Amino acid sequence: MNSKSQEKNIQVEDAQTGISKKFTLHQKNTKKYLRRLYFNLVICTCFMTGEIVGGIVSGSIAILTDAFHIFTDILGFLISIASLHITRKPATYKLTFGFYRAEVLGAVLSIALIWGLTAWLVSEAIVRMITPETVDGLIMLVTACGGLAGNIIMGIVLINADPEQIDDEEEDEKNGGSTSKGANEENEENGENGEKLNEDENKKKQSKSLNMRASIIHVIGDSIQSIGVIIAGGIIYSKPDYKRADPVCTLLFCIVVLGTTLPILKDCIKILMESTPPDVDISEITKSIKEIDEVMDVHDIHVWSLSSGKVSFSCHVVSNNPNFVLEKATNLLKEKFHIGHLTIQVEAGDSSIEFTCENDLH
Ligand SMILES: [Zn+2]
Ligand SMILES: [Zn+2]
């Protein structure tokens, strides 16, 4: 009993040092990404001011709502920056999983913000469809071209800030030097090295992080909107009677926004519902564990993501050779299934040992 509680304490400490090490490794990448986010904040503020002026002068709802949209973008960037800062914090005894979920919460908040604005845009556009207002096509055209230029600049900056790409670059640097390898050898005994390797593999396999994907899809959506406004401006410029092109453009844009944000929201909900990550085959894992010698049964399997690409695993294994089975199952999950964070409870299959596996939840 005593040795078991001691083991628990050591595990918490290990998890903590692991996280703080990861923190220093990724500090550089995050700083680069943050710098670009701040850069985008400045660009957004400039273009928002320009569009507010252009929108008021031309009388175009499409341009004005685009300016409002940029304002919510600024709020979105602020959420991204805040969640990046929070994710970098090491785990604590009260928050043993660290702050990784903050990224998911940030993504959900951004989408809520965008959808709120979209609802407002739809109602405004409907009013303008019923009673069209005069719009200056030329100013609308010029302002929209400026907006498109701003989106292209932000898109280029964001794609270059892809954290995965930076990770690969740094990995290549590391493989070139042999000194870091030697430093890691000391940790081999407690499995640190293996865990790190698996995490790296995991990272390579995983798709871009939720916020990264959200930002890129967002910039693409914004560019489509700008092109739409340019077309509407062109129509109104050549045929001033076609005033409804202005709100029509806004309505079309709202459909695009719903289409682009829905998949991201779905991914967020899946993580919040603790669903099995899409690239994990739970029946294959069960089969592989059952195939280990001396494993009598496997039950209570859980696989979930803390954040995108951060997979956690827990299960109960019935066996009369606990140390052997624990080692085999741990190696199997780390090497074959690339799961870095796992908990395995080994239960005795011998009926003479008094232990009943009960579960509150299911
Ligand atoms: Zn935007
Ligand atoms: Zn059990």
From TrEMBL:
Gene3D superfamilies: Cation efflux protein transmembrane domain
Keyword Transmembrane helix found: yes
Keywords: Ion transport, Membrane, Transmembrane, Transmembrane helix, Transport, Zinc, Zinc transport
GO molecular function, one term: zinc ion transmembrane transporter activity
Cation efflux protein transmembrane domain segment(s): 40-273
Region (Disordered) location: 167-206
Top-rank taxon, per record: Eukaryota
InterPro entries named in the record: Cation_efflux, Cation_efflux_CTD, Cation_efflux_CTD_sf, Cation_efflux_TM, Cation_efflux_TMD_sf, CDF/SLC30A
Database matches in SUPFAM superfamilies: Cation efflux protein cytoplasmic domain-like, Cation efflux protein transmembrane domain-like
Cation efflux protein cytoplasmic domain mapped to chain residues: 277-347
Biased composition (Basic and acidic residues): 193-204
UniProt-annotated location(s): Membrane
Any matching Pfam family: ZT_dimer
Membrane topology: Multi-pass membrane protein
GO CC aspect terms: plasma membrane
Parts of the chain that traverse the membrane: 37-61, 67-86, 98-118, 138-159, 214-238, 244-265
Similarity section: Belongs to the cation diffusion facilitator (CDF) transporter (TC 2.A.4) family. SLC30A subfamily.
The protein's name: Cation efflux protein cytoplasmic domain-containing protein
Source organism of this protein record: Stentor coeruleus
